[in-house]
Automatic annotation (TrEMBL):
InterPro entries: HTH_LacI (IPR000843), LacI/GalR-like_sensor (IPR046335), Lambda_DNA-bd_dom_sf (IPR010982), Peripla_BP_I (IPR028082)
Source organism superkingdom: Bacteria
Protein's organism: Acidisarcina polymorpha
GO terms of molecular function: DNA-binding transcription factor activity; transcription cis-regulatory region binding
Lineage: Bacteria, Pseudomonadati, Acidobacteriota, Terriglobia, Terriglobales
Name of the protein described by the UniProt record: Ribose operon repressor
HTH lacI-type domain span: 11-68
Amino acid sequence: MSPLKAKSNHVTIVDVATTSGFSPSTVSIVLNEAPLSRYVAAKTKERIRKAAKDLGYRPDAFARSLRNRRSHTVGVLIFDISDPFCTLILQGIERCLDSTAYLPIIMDAHNEKKQFEGYLEMLMERRVEGLIVVANWLFEEGGLLLNLRRNNLPTVVVGRDLSTDLISSVVVDNVAGGYTAMEHLYSLGHRKIAVIRGPEKLGDSNLRWQGIQQFAAEHNYQLDPRRVRLLPEALDPTSGFEGGVAATEDLLRSAADFTALLAFDDLTALGAIRALILSGRSVPGDCSVIGFDDVPPAAFCTPGLTTIRQPMEEMGRIATGWVLRAVQGPDTEDAILPPMQILSPQLLIRESTSRV
């Protein structure tokens, strides 16, 4: 005996037409809000829409995409979803798309260049109408996105400045952030300040260091090189924690005393706190610690981490808004994306810093 074929529960336009008593073509015009629908009587529209609602009719988005040659999707390519830097940016992207007809296709490249290239190709094949790249602190590959400009795909990078490659970027003012972090520790009376910088090749690290140096120069403060450490290059964004532990242990072994520590980012700062506590130092009693980013774990640790907050959710919303304006108005000035927007950081004081 041959197996019975499962009956489909999918409600079609023909089903709505049968229930409402109108032709499938009239039903299609009304439900798809086609230009001809303005010639359909209001009572007819009401009857068709009620029948569709009662039957549980859902439009076939795939078929509509084929007809309109529009996918109504936005590609979101991230480099490691485990990186807490990404969390709030993704929230901003999703909340901005929530009230629109566009769906995000989120793909995680796991910090692999080859996987990034493969996912980028897949998103192009699926005809995404725009692309948002959430770049963590390992991302330095501007060249991989250059072809997108040639294909006129609206693309925005969040967290890295690729404006010199003519790719729209949404970033925080890292120079101002480094300056503000140093200013905070200095205002608390600290004069023996240790600094853990980010990897040498990382643009954000150099900009934050520039801000630190700028404050020092303006206040005639000498940055002691014995109190400066550099995070190594790494393939794992969470390695900042281990890097913070190792760099702080090295500082503690050195002859350079310090009463405050300025870390490259929050994970590095959390690693520094771990190393200080394990060595018998209290935070902030023996050493104040400040981070950068305000990732979710910063508020949950003990003590709560003082940090320089990046407006990450807002960065995600801005990037998404740019892409939506470009895809919804391809023949208008909105299709021309701004080269870059730099957002101001904010000092967020918690319990990990105090006066000397």
